[in-house]
Amino acid sequence: MDIIDILIDALRAAILITGMVVLMMLMIESLNISSGGRFFARLQRSRAGQVVVAALLGWIPGCMGGYATVSLYTHGMMSFGALVAMMIATSGDEAFVMLTLFPGKALWISVVLLLTGMAVGLLTDTLGPRLGLKANTSQAPCNEMQLHEEDLHEHAHDHHEEQGHARERHLLTWKRGVLFTGIVLYILALATGMLEHGHEGAEAEEHGGFNLLSEDWMNMLFAAASLIMLAVVAFGTDHFVEEHLWNHVIARHVPKIFAWTFGVLLVLGFLSEAVDVNSWISANVPLMILLATLIGIIPESGPHLVFVTLFATGVVPLPVLLASSISQDGHASLPLIAESKRDFLRAKAINCFVALAVGFATWALF
What we know:
The chain is mainly alpha-helical. The chain has 17 helices and no strands.
C-alpha cells in the first residue's frame, strides 16, 4: 500500500468517525436543552441513590453527565463515592467513538463500567469515613453546564413578549448554513457508500444471521438521525444553533476529534507497513495496561482515543481498553480540578487502582 492509499483510507475513516461522533453529540445537546436541563435536576436522597444516579449520569456518552455530577458534588449534594462512581462509569467523548466503531462491544464495555462504578462508589462511601474521605461541601459555582438564560426562557410557562421574539429568531446565519450543508453532505456520503471502510478487527464479528449493529445498519441509523438533525438545525433558534450546536459541539469538539482520529489512523497505517505492531503489543500487554492507566490520569479527551482506535483495529486486547476506560473520564473532571485538586487526585488514585486491578484480572482470565 502506497502513501496515497494510506492517506485516503485514514481520511475516509476519520471523516466517518468524526461525523458519527458529532451527530450523537448534537442529538444529546438537543435533548438536554429541549428538556430545559430537567434531565439532571432530580436526585434520590439516599447515599446509595446518589451513587447510582452519578454512575448513570456518567454512563451518558460525552461529558455532560460528568459535568452535572461534579457540579452537584462541589455543591455538597453528592458524596465522594458518587463522584468516584461517575468517573469510573464515564468514558467522555471516547464513548461516542466506541459506539461508532464497535457498537456491540461498546455496549458490553459500558455495562461493565457502570456496574464497576456503582460497586466501587458504594464501597468508597462505606469505607470512606474510616479513610477520612468526606463529601466536599464547597459552594463555589460550576459554570460548565451548557444551559443558558435564554434556554430557561424557552421552557418558561408564561409567554412574555421577549420570549416570543426569541422564538421567532430563525435567521439563516453562516453557522446555520454550514451546519445544514455539512449534514446534507454527510447523508449523501453515507447513502452513496463513499465512507465505507473495512474493519478487519472490529467487523470480524458475526457474519451469519441478522445483526442490527452491523456497519450497514448503523450507517442507515445515522443517516435517519441526520435527517432529524437537519430539522433541528433548520428550525432551532439562533441562540440554540450558534451557542449550543456550533460553539459547544462543532468549535470545541470537531477539530480535536478529527485531528486525533486521523493522526492515530495515519500513524497506524504507516507503522503497519514497517513494523508488526500486533506481535509487539501481544508481547507487551502488561506494559500497555499500565500505560493506558497512567494516560487515563490526563483530564482531557484525545489521548485516550489512541487506545480506542488500537482496539478497533485489533492491535490491543480488551484488558487494555478496559483499563483505559476505567482510568480516564474525558474532560468531565476538569471542573473538579478548579474546585478541589485534592479530591481530584484522591478520586483518580482510586480509579487507577481499579483500572489496574480490572485490566490485569481480565488479562489473566482471558
